[in-house]
Amino acid sequence: MRVPLSWLREYVDLPATQTGRDVQEKLITVGLEVETVEQVGAGLKGPLVVGQVLTIEELEGFKKPIRFCTVDVGTANGTGEPQEIVCGARNFAVGDKVVVVLPGAVLPGDFAIAARKTYGHTSHGMICSGDELGMGDDGTGGIIVLSPEHEVGTDAIELLQLVDEVLDIAVTPDRGYALSLRGIARETAIAYGLPLRDPALLDVPAPNAYGYPVEVADPFACDRFTARTVTGLDPDAKSPIWLRRRLQKAGMRPISLAVDITNYVMLELGQPLHAYDRSRVQGAIGVRRAEPGEKLTTLDGVTRTLDAEDLLITDDRGAIGLAGVMGGANTEIDDTEGTTTEVVIEAAHFDAITIARTARRHKLASEASKRFERGVDPQAASAAAQRTVDLLVLLAGGTADAGVTEVISPSAPRTISIPANHPDRVAGVEYGRETVVRRLQQVGCDVYGQDELIVTVPSWRPDLTDPNDLAEEVIRLEGYENLPSTLPKPPAGRGLTDRQRLHRRVGRALAGAGYVEALNYPFIGEQVFDQLGLAADDPKRKVVKLANPLSDEEPALRTTLLPGLLGALRRNDGRGSHDLALFETGLVFHPQDELLVAGRLPVDRRPTDEEIASLTAALPVQPRHAAVVLAGAREQAGWWGKGRPADWADAIEAARSLANEAGTELLVRAGQYGPWHPGRCAELVVVADGTEQVIGYAGELHPRVLKALHLPARTCAMELNLDELEAASSGVPKGPKISTFPVATQDVALVVAREVPHTDVEAALREGAGALLESIRLFDVYESGEQLGEGRKSLAYALRFRAADRTLTVDEASAARDAAVALAGERTGAVLRS
């Protein structure tokens, strides 16, 4: 919103010494975002005067038309003689009043004016256009031609209001009242503690039965419609200078008198208006929703196919305007023909959401829609219509029709109950009841009560809906800068939960193992499940879809971390980083079996446990997962020896490290699932409450998945459910006790059938060895050789025995080893390799 300071002073008696910078500072203190203060006419220096063209001589022989003119500038040139000026413009004639800049003047842009010889004549100054004076586009694109009543020699700087200051204010969506001089003036008056001359306080005649007929079919979308008629307009009347200049400074282009007046009143009062050529309107004006497929050609010349939710202004022929957005071309006031002598003024109040959706649906943002969707004062409609009528009568010589139409849907003002000390508790500052009441009254509220205040919200503030909104008004007017800075005091006894500690330990463990954390967006497209090779009935295919996704290609929330991690690996590999080890911990999302609607939590108190539980029940199931992906070399080659590529065992080891951080025993056995290679896939299992539970998979990805996702060969991955891993843990892992007694190591090589899992053999050895076993490690697998036999394999284990209170004897260590081998033989058929 651009606000000329000269216009603002009409409503607030600002001290003469106050500059735009001073007003900017004051408005910022009350919460308005004043971005810049533009110095209009900065550097402009006279003499710049009104002149009258006496003669025009057309110069021949040049590539473009050139005119040699004599102009009467009175005594402004010090001699009283006509001023000789060379000019190339052609939109003026002998006898016209024009704006002349004389030698010695400086125009905007530091353009100094001096007498100079050109086209065979000496030009003593310039006849000016609006662009040369920094006035902007006035719609003519040529020399400024003034009305005849201006005297020759008059100072044109003051006449054209060329020097001013304009405040550029960024209006937030909740403060639509600030999109008007009335709203900004109110804030200025409050900031300075001065009275406001409200431009909406006009004498408005009561509605009667003689006004232009109006029929509103949708009173919810249009709760107020005022129509006024003005007849006998002078079709040749032009907008006066002061009106055009105010529109230009506010960032609008002058068009025609009737349109300029409606725009002027909109800027002044914040109420959008529309003027219809009465001769082009047939029958009563109606307000209704559009019929599907109905069409309308708007003022911008575009024929639009309408939606059933669009709100229309109609007459007997059909649509004549898109309500609150843009008028139709079939009732436009045509200034070029100069035939409009009667107009119907529309001042209506439309539903903000309806207008916002229509404007976005048709990609048609206008000054009117920008105001309606932010909230317009419904009580200002009749005053805005009256102001428009008054200006048309004054400037176009029209006559106000006696008929006044007002269609109003009954409504009651909004009231809010608020404790008098509520702003004190919100801000942590003791304002007191008197200050709270005074500030709310300055905003425009009616306040009653003592300890409990009953506040009636003004019609121009639809954003004030609850006690915290009123508290914010008090706090901002008292000054945010006056709020004390206090450090928050965390309550004692609260810290990280066990779940949060585990997540941090997991991250540190993976980072310590050489993985790099890669955080990805939680959005996926459902086609990725086909690329991962998931079965048609896989639970991961059931997704939560977003109502308003950032991208149509990724409209769902992820059910697995692998798509994001594999995408990050692919991008980095494509950019030259081939040795990669990435990890991520994050939430995945699964839909609830029953769709529930979340309730609205209160903001004035802490929600109850029941309210939080109700909200949680409506949310998707959100377990936290951990995943890693690997490609390229896991160990680099160098002078120290050969490197090695990442393989399935590294992915499994990542899962083991996470189980170690959780203090959980992880069982690893052969498995088969979706994206993993069927022969190189490990199933990750934990035991919870005596029941085995699969919490994830690890291994090498399937070649088809690598091809579909354009991944490097032999890419490996692991993903597991951290919440289920934590649930199976015995709590925070305890540090090991260091024994001072020596360890006894016993190696055994067992021959088993090739299909027997190593984990089964290890579990039997661990149970059979008893309490003296400190650790067990598989260090060799041998599957070929005639001595083993067909379908057999050899597993070699290193068993470490140690007692906490003594040095073990050879017999004790051997007995524990034999017991372990015996139980392994009983359960898995293992025999000692000879």
TrEMBL record:
Amino acids binding Mg(2+): D463, D469, E472, E473
SMART domains to which the protein is assigned, alphabetical: B3_4, B5, FDX-ACB
Cofactor(s) in the UniProt record: Mg(2+)
EC number from the UniProt entry: 6.1.1.20
GO molecular function, a single term: ATP binding
Cofactor-binding details, from the entry: Binds 2 magnesium ions per tetramer.
Top-level taxon of origin: Bacteria
Primary residence: cytoplasm
Keyword Transit peptide: no
Residue ranges annotated for the FDX-ACB domain, each copy included: 739-833
Compartments where found: Cytoplasm
PANTHER family: PHENYLALANINE--TRNA LIGASE BETA SUBUNIT (PTHR10947:SF0), PHENYLALANYL-TRNA SYNTHETASE BETA CHAIN AND LEUCINE-RICH REPEAT-CONTAINING PROTEIN 47 (PTHR10947)
Subunit and partners: Tetramer of two alpha and two beta subunits.
This protein's name: Phenylalanine--tRNA ligase beta subunit
Organism in which the protein naturally occurs: Streptomyces lacrimifluminis
